[in-house]
Design brief:
Its cofactor is L-ascorbate. The chain is an alpha+beta fold. It has a single domain, classed as Jelly Rolls (Sandwich), CATH 2.60.120.330. The protein contains ten helices and 13 strands. The strands form two sheets. The chain has an eight-stranded mixed β-sheet. α3 packs across α8 and α4 packs across α8 (158-187). The longest helix has 30 residues, at 158-187.
Length: 348
């Protein structure tokens, strides 16, 4: 890995923020009210013990049925839930957190120009046209094909390579199990979901995202990650103890209380479409912390770009579309308007 002597680790987020602020005459609420000023209640998401699904041998048929019903109910009512006994070892997640910290402490130039992790480094929001569209964060958004491939550049971070591959494998197994359970709950025996559900999803199509949210001293209203829904089938998230994740529930933002050892699961846009809106892809965001950095790891269950999303049952409220079409439309809307529109674009 090239040396970058004397280079700072932090991305130039403050420069971007102040440049956007100047562009808008010193005001940063041109595109909406400051939701961060509204008191936010803390919530505990539904907690589901999925040990009967993840352990070898599993539980009884009755235990599995009760677990599946709880997962489907949470997907319908919240769009988010937590799982324990999920099969991703606590020691592995601790190692991931340590290796992430080492990765993000590298000089900014090394992260942004040295081609690390398939050249997948991202920071801020390149499409932002106002401070309210800027994400105060940095990330490596890595295709799993890159994580497992021999050509993926981990620099000198050999421990990161091993840990990342192990985390990706464990989260992939969990995500596939949960997706099939959710599909079977909707199909109700009419047809099997199949071991390959969702169709087109495998180790070459999914993503692992390593996130860091630096301290943000410039504005209490800045977003760590702007409000959005996920453009996948399912997301598995490991957040640290700092907190900052908020989701929309009943027309108001609620903060998700971090629970040690638990993983967070949320429904993505593709599952909402496939389920004919039974399962909810819920808007969520990350708020900044003035003094403390935050780390998280997210696994995104995505199909290949040419995979049709389909439906659990006809008629569907959505026209037929592929994942590639969906991604392209999202990117087009964000570039044109600064905001994601998402599923409404594909209504019949």
């Amino acid at each position: 890995m090239p040396a970058f002597a004397g280079s700072a680790a932090e991305p130039p987020l403050a420069d971007s923020y102040h440049a956007l602020l100047r562009r808008h005459g010193g005001g940063d609420n041109d595109d909406g009210a400051h939701t961060a000023a509204v008191p936010v209640a803390e919530c505990e998401l539904p907690m589901i013990d999925v040990g009967c699904l993840t352990r070898d041998g599993g539980g009884s048929e009755a235990e599995r049925a009760a677990c599946a019903a709880a997962i489907a109910r949470a997907a319908e009512e919240w769009g988010f839930f937590q799982v324990r006994n999920h099969g991703v070892a606590p020691g592995l997640l601790d190692a991931m957190r340590r290796e992430q910290a080492r990765l993000f402490r590298l000089p900014f130039e090394a992260k942004s120009t040295a081609g690390l992790l398939n050249d997948s480094y991202r920071w801020g929001t390149p499409t932002a046209t106002s401070p309210r569209q800027l994400s105060w964060s940095e990330a490596f958004h890595v295709p799993l094909a890159g994580v497992s491939g021999d050509r993926c550049n981990f620099g000198d971070l050999t421990a990161l390579r091993d840990v990342t591959r192990e985390v990706a494998g464990a989260m992939s197994k969990l995500a596939g199990t949960l997706a099939r359970v959710l599909a079977e709950a909707l199909l109700a025996g009419r047809r099997p979901a199949g071991e390959r559900f969702p169709e087109g999803c495998d180790e070459t199509t999914c993503f692992l995202r390593l996130n860091r949210y630096p301290p943000c001293p410039v504005s209490p209203d800045a977003f760590g990650l702007v409000p959005h829904t996920d453009s996948d089938f399912l997301t598995v998230l490991c957040q640290d103890h700092v907190g900052g994740l908020q989701l929309m529930k009943g027309a108001r933002w609620v903060a998700v209380k971090p629970i040690p050892g638990a993983l967070i699961v949320n429904i993505g846009d593709l599952f909402q479409a496939w389920s004919n809106n039974r399962y909810k892809s819920v808007e969520h965001k990350v708020v900044t912390n003035a003094t403390t950095e935050r780390y998280s790891v997210a696994y995104f269950l995505c199909p290949s770009y040419d995979s049709p999303i389909g439906t659990c049952e006809e008629p569907s409220p959505y026209r037929t579309f592929t994942f590639g079409e969906y991604r392209s439309k999202v990117q087009e809307d964000v570039k044109r308007t600064g905001k994601k529109i998402g599923l409404p674009n594909f209504l019949v």
